[in-house]
């Protein structure tokens, strides 16, 4: 289709990289939070940063808590299985089923 004219060249990517200082941004956010304690947006940011800090907390503590939760879940399952076994083996259930069946 060259006879219809020149084809358009693609537009070049013109991104100009800028320097980003993460520590400076964090410092400025903290200063703004201290200077404007009543600002609603700053309060929201403060809450978010607190939640992030807790989430990124001590890895050993998290591992310990996860391990304890897993053991607790295991104990609960074992107890439920044992109680279910006792209920199914007791004569109360069989008597109840006989009464319902007539």
Keywords, separated by commas or semicolons:
single chain, 102 residues, mainly alpha, 2 domains, 71% helix
Radius of gyration: 33 Å
Strand content: under 5%
Terminal residue distance: 90 Å
**The number of domains:** 2
Helix content: over 70%
Helical segment tally? 4
Major β-sheet, in short? none
Secondary-structure-based class equals mainly alpha
Number of strands: 0
Mean pLDDT: 82
Q: Report low-confidence residues grouped into runs of 5 or more.
A: none
Q: Choose one word for the global shape.
A: elongated
| Assembly of the depicted chains | single chain
Task: Write down the secondary-structure element order.
Answer: HHHH
Provide an overview of this structure.
It is a single chain. With 102 residues, this protein is an all-alpha fold. The chain folds into 2 domains: 22-57; 59-102. It is built from 4 helices and no strands. 0% of the residues are buried.
């Amino acid at each position: 289709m060259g006879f219809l004219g020149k084809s358009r060249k693609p537009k070049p990517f013109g991104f100009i990289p800028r320097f980003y200082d993460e520590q400076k941004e964090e410092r400025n956010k903290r200063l703004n939070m201290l200077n404007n304690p009543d600002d609603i947006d700053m309060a929201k940011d403060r809450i978010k940063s607190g939640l992030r800090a807790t989430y990124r907390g001590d890895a050993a503590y998290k591992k310990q808590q996860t391990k304890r939760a897993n053991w607790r879940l295991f104990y609960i399952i074992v107890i439920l299985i044992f109680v279910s076994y006792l209920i199914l083996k007791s004569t109360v259930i069989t008597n109840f089923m006989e009464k319902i069946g007539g």
